[in-house]
Specification:
Blueprint: E1 2-6, H1 13-24, E2 29-33, H2 36-44, E3 51-55, H3 63-73, E4 78-83, H4 89-92, E5 99-102, H5 106-124, E6 127-132, E7 135-140, E8 144-150, E9 153-158, E10 161-166, H6 169-173, E11 181-183, E12 188-191, E13 195-198, E14 202-205, E15 212-213, H7 216-235
Parallel strand pairs: 1-2, 1-3, 3-4, 4-5
Antiparallel strand pairs: 6-7, 8-9, 8-12, 9-10, 11-12, 13-14, 14-15
Helix pairs in contact: 1-5
């Protein structure tokens, strides 16, 4: 992930990078611009980013002027405005920013913005973001076959292997799309469209040789997701 930071306060750069790495992982590349002209030169030369953090009050072109130019070539760009003045909020709406960071609450607002960026990028790609230490791992919904939980840890099984994460299934379940994933018992969540065999009290999913038991609520969730006709098409 690449992020452009446009702010004339260079003293903030190291702290911004720390907060970004803390929430998005060390694989994030940050380019810092203390002058809007420097950013525009790179942008007009073809440099693009996944997200742009723009200080509204910059020498030369303002953050909103930069946003206007970004929007001309990229309607989907993630824009975040930063300002010490709250009265800019309404003017920013024209550029459809993800959020507005107030300098008086800078670190707190920046941390929230990083969480929003992570979710936004995951949604754009139909993926879910998993935190693993200081890294963020993005997995496409279709890659995930099933998820198995044990106490405060869970394992995500995909076509390419297994990923282990810290957390509970109950927490994870809230972040998963209900039209794809079903919690079928206390310890397992499955991608319904990777079910390949149905038995009276259990199922088998792609990449798994053993049967996974399904409780009553699990069957209700499976039937709600795919319906009888879709289930016949995908599973029989």
């Amino acid at each position: 992930m690449n992020i452009a930071i446009c702010d004339d306060n260079e003293a903030l750069f190291s702290r911004i990078e720390e907060v970004i790495e803390e929430h998005l992982g060390v694989d994030v590349v940050c380019d810092f611009y203390s002058e809007s002209a420097d950013f525009l030169a790179h942008f007009r030369d073809g440099q693009r980013y996944d997200a742009y953090l723009l200080d509204i009050c910059m020498p030369g072109s303002s953050g909103m002027a930069l946003a206007a130019e970004i929007r001309q070539s990229d309607q989907q760009a993630i824009l975040i405005f930063v300002s010490g003045y709250e009265n800019y909020g309404c003017e920013c709406i024209d550029y459809a920013p993800l959020c507005f960071i107030k300098k008086k609450n800078f670190e707190k607002d920046l941390a929230k913005a990083m969480v929003m960026i992570s979710k936004k990028l995951a949604d754009k790609a139909q993926r879910i973001a998993f935190k693993k230490g200081r890294r963020t791992i993005l997995l496409a919904y279709d890659e995930i076959h099933y998820i198995q939980g044990k106490r405060n840890n869970y394992s995500v099984f995909t076509k390419d292997g297994e990923y282990d994460f810290y957390g509970t299934l109950s927490q994870l379940e809230k972040t998963l799309p209900e039209n794809i994933f079903a919690r079928i018992n206390k310890s397992n969540i499955v991608n319904v469209f990777h079910i390949r065999e149905i038995a009276p009290q259990s199922i088998k999913v792609d990449g798994c040789d053993f049967s996974i038991p399904v409780n009553e609520k699990g069957w209700e969730k499976i039937n709600r997701i795919i319906g009888q006709s879709v289930r016949e098409k995908h599973l029989l």
